[in-house]
Amino acid sequence: MEKIKKFFRENIYFNLFWCFFKVGVVTIGGGVAMVPILQEKICEEYRWMTQEEILDCITVSQGLPGVIAINMATYVGYFKRGLRGAFCSTLGVILPSFVIIIIVVLFLEEVGGNPYVGGLLGGIKAAATGLIAYAAWKLGKQTLKNAFQRIVAIVAFILLAFVGLDAVWVVLAGLLVGEVYYAIKGAKEGKKNADSN
Amino acid sequence: MQILIKLFFTFAKIGLIGFGGGMAILPLIYDSVIQFNSMDPDEFANLFAISQATPGPLAVNAATFSGFQTAGVFGALAATIGVSFPAFILVGICVKFLDKYKGNRLVEGAFEGARPVAVGMIMAGFITIGQTALLSVDLSEIVNMASLFDAVKPIQLIMAVATFILAKKFKMKAFHIIIIMGVLGTFLCKGAIL
Q: Which of A9, A129, A194, B157 is deepest in the core (most CB within 10 A)?
């Protein structure tokens, strides 16, 4: 019994699967809706990644083609334990929706027409909205350290939410702006060092 | 067997060329689904409504649905594996590459811009999800403050604000808040999806 408990607590592959299974069960709509609970579990509970690393995971997942939730799960799995880790985390994130959709198909009328089911899912969505606001606030406070970073974040927000630009273009623009800023910063610091010598 | 292979490749296409996820790849998902199921846009809208309200990404839900209707559980498996397969290759290459060139000037510079963009993406996600969770009409239909007040679902808005406070002030775990709000919603936000 102890051995079994120890396995569930310590086995990284099982934990990757279980973490993403739980995330899959409670995220309605997929994609960015996953971020709050993912951030909490991965940065604070399991401590698999830093805040900066989870942001890298989010940009890469949005910038690549495909399903964002799957990209994020695969990223974290690969990051921790290569292909096998990726397999476990992706299986975990897909399994809940796989099972739920099959149930929904079988009982479409009952599920779609039941006001309590609608209420349950509506409540979860309201919670998701509050949680995303909190995640944006928390990650923003911890990772946006200067004016450049704050401006890039706000411009990206406006382009995505109100202009309706595709995420891939915003990511590419972000990469370019980052390169330019980094080059200018590097040149300035180089000059400062040269002056002080 | 042939139908399973076809399901796999049709849905693998979404994983390979569908940029942006969710709403952005809706047309691509529709094209894939109608290759297997005779479905008019109305029925697809129902599938979309259910998918928006149930756990899981839209593309995975659509793949599972389409595969299951076409060839049972194995069909659902073939389509779902298809939709997630490209990520293994593309994300795998990315993670390897980033790991190898960690500390490289170009990679560091790229991240300098990419990380704030990710924060912007989460803020944009708040608008996308908030509009379906808290408003009764599409955001584009809101033209002034009066129409905004009309569209807001008050109970859901209070629950969203309460969630923020529970998370920030009381450090409650996201998982627990979701369960509490789900139970409250069952009785306070009653209403059929379809």
A: A129
